[in-house]
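Dear colleague,

Thank you for sharing your sequence with our group. We've completed the structure prediction you requested, and as agreed, I am returning the results in plain text so they can be pasted directly into your records. Please verify that the sequence below matches your submission; if there's any discrepancy, let me know and we will rerun it promptly.
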Amino acid sequence: MSEHIGEIVSTYRNLHNKEGAGYSVKRAGRVISKRGGLQQVTLSDVTFKVSEKTRQRVIREKKKYVHAYCVGTLELATDYAWPMYSQTADSKRSEEADLWDRGWRKARYNPYHGPDFLLDGHPLKGADKVKLNATGMWVYNPRFK
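Please find the predicted structure tokens below.
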């Protein structure tokens, strides 16, 4: 994946990954991540895209279809599993708390709750940076609709 650093990609959560959260990366309409997905992806200059037609199909059929993406410039893509509850050496705080302290906020997307990615209930248009890992989707400097 390192050969694609700096390129514009679309990233989505691979819900069919049996080993936990994994993310798939597409470029020019083709999946470029390996089978099973990646454990960590970081993007910059991100916009959030949702196909409303496919979202309605998800709601109607109650099945999983790829229809929501983070689109941005690829900065990091790795198989390293970011530990959800690991503790930092100096403060014994979780890495989630460390991200929060550095200004990152946890965002969510649920097709049954509406057509937008949300941060604290507010619809997102984009963000300066997005981190996707085992703990979810983290945004830095969000832009709201």
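Summary note from our side: The first helix runs from residue 52 to 61.

Kind regards,
the structure core
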